[in-house]
Design brief:
By secondary structure, this protein is mainly β. The chain has helices spanning 8-11, 74-81, 316-323, and strands spanning 29-32, 67-71, 87-91, 94-96, 100-102, 107-111, 117-119, 122-126, 129-134, 137-139, 146-149, 153-158, 161-163, 170-172, 177-182, 185-187, 194-195, 209-213, 216-218, 226-228, 232-236, 239-241, 248-251, 255-259, 262-264, 270-272, 281-285, 288-290. One of its GO terms (molecular function) is lyase activity.
Length: 329
């Protein structure tokens, strides 16, 4: 496997847009053609392709090949999420949801511009496949912001922000697999990202292949991620700053590789075992420790089978702060 330094301008997902013909605005949804126009760069993006586990198992393309809708209300968003077949759903402005709302297979859910926001509720990726969630601000959710569960596969959560919610920001559990969580900004929140449902849910063993890269864990408390049973969690080139409890925890025989991350003011960059959970395996290499404690490690975790490029850990604060979150694709 080739691992080389690659400039952030190459790795970021460049955006092309298609024009939106506004229709039926009173219902909060407008329909546009699926084909992109190369000269217009103001509306629906072509999202690119994920790096990491979401690139495996056939890859993750979301709503590619389907139509595009633009939604401006919670009711219109819920209707679009439940549509059968491939679809790109653009969120414009601030949309209010309640509780958890199911998204179907073969969907891209993406914000228009840098200020598209989902507030109040969350997105349930439940027993489906091929889903992209990108370029959105999530805040004040009442359960989880994004919940990937019940055997969902090929999910990419990219270039979003998450703040001030009730429970998890992005959780992956109950035999889900082939997930990439990349270029997100998590801030002013406690429980960030759980992988694995519980100590008793042994069915997660052999699943939960998840990649975290170029995320900004900015003053968040814990779970960056907290892992149980995973076949492979790969955590690389993330920026950890002022995390109150810990960075990464590997428990219940999980396999976690932590490489080339930057930890700033983090007393416990990694844990092997946590709370009442038995220990997992964790390999740490190439990480930059800035006023931070020493990582806990145990075992030799294999390198994942996909191709990826590592940035120098010392450069991660600048790269991630300039590239993570909405508006940076």
């Amino acid at each position: 496997m080739r691992k080389t330094h690659e400039s952030p301008s190459v790795r970021r997902y460049r955006v092309a847009f298609v024009p939106a013909a506004v229709a039926a605005l009173a219902t909060g949804v407008s329909l546009v053609a699926a084909a992109p126009a190369a000269s217009d760069t103001t509306d629906a993006p072509l999202v690119g392709s994920p790096i990491g586990w979401a690139s495996q198992n056939g890859g993750t393309t979301g709503g590619a090949g389907g139509g595009t809708v633009t939604v401006t209300s919670g009711s219109a968003l819920v209707d679009a999420l439940e549509t059968e077949g491939p679809l790109t759903i653009q969120v414009s402005g601030t949309v209010q949801l309640d509780g958890m709302n199911d998204i179907g297979s073969d969907k891209t859910l993406i914000g228009v511009g840098s200020n598209a926001t989902i507030t109040g509720g969350g997105i349930d990726v439940d027993g489906v496949s091929n889903v992209i969630i990108q370029n959105l601000n999530f805040r004040d959710w009442d359960d989880d912001a994004v919940n990937v569960q019940d055997g969902s596969t090929n999910v990419w959560v990219d270039h979003n922000s998450f703040t001030n919610g009730n429970d998890g920001a992005v959780d992956v559990k109950r035999e889900s697999d082939y997930v990439t969580i990349s270029w997100n900004h998590f801030f002013d929140h406690e429980k960030t990202s759980l992988v694995g449902h519980s100590d008793s849910h042994t069915e997660d063993a052999g699943h939960l292949r998840v990649t975290y890269h170029h995320n900004f864990f900015d003053g968040t408390g814990s779970r960056h991620p907290r892992v149980r049973f995973s076949e492979s969690v790969h955590v690389f080139n993330n920026y950890y700053r002022d995390n109150a409890e810990y960075g990464v925890a590997s428990t219940m025989d999980a396999n976690v590789l932590v490489e080339n991350n930057y930890f700033e003011n983090v007393d416990h960059p990694t844990h092997v075992g946590y709370a009442s959970s038995d220990p997992g395996l964790l390999t740490a290499r190439g990480n930059f420790l800035d006023n931070s404690g020493q990582p806990e490690t145990d075992g030799n975790v294999p390198t994942p089978p996909y191709s990826y490029s590592l940035d120098n850990a010392a450069n991660i604060p600048g790269i991630v702060q300039n590239g993570a979150g909405p508006g940076n694709i």
